[in-house]
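A reminder from the course coordinator: this example appears on the midterm review sheet, so study it carefully.

Given structure:
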């Protein structure tokens, strides 16, 4: 099971925002799309990511000043990414090790999607449910 499986199910649409955009605009965009993070990009270049967590942290640290700051001032620059071919267990380990909830998916260096901890957990639960059903069917068939 790999990252591509999730993208095939959820699609490859990724909400992006420019580095010069206001933090208010980023927050509005997150709320409107009902998502937890935006990829920060200029043209085709992926520059970073801004999440709800980044915004809360900035508000706590800078207070009212946040209103006049831009995305580039608070975004996470050190991106943790995966490729479509990457194994889902590897993606889970990356999320755990780096304490991130969103992983941009890059195909040949270009943005190809985004997976979240919610996507990974859902996929894992679906897989476990299927395994349980198969085991139950095998058990019933042999007894």
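Designed residues:
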């Amino acid at each position: 099971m790999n990252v591509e499986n999730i993208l095939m199910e959820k699609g490859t649409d990724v909400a992006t925002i420019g580095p010069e955009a206001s933090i208010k605009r980023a927050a509005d965009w997150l709320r409107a799309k009902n998502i937890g993070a935006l990829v920060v990009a200029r043209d085709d270049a992926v520059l970073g990511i801004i999440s709800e967590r980044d915004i809360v942290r900035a508000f706590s640290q800078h207070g009212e000043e946040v209103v006049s700051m831009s995305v580039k001032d608070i975004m996470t620059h050190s991106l943790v990414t995966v490729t479509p071919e990457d194994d889902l267990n590897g993606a889970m380990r990356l999320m755990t090790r780096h304490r991130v909830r969103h992983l941009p998916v890059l195909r040949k260096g270009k943005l190809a999607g985004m997976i979240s901890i919610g996507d990974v957990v859902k996929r894992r639960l679906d897989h476990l449910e299927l395994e349980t059903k198969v085991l139950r069917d095998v058990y019933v068939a042999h007894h």
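Strands lie at 16-17, 37-42, 45-51, 102-107, 110-116. The chain has one domain: 3-142.
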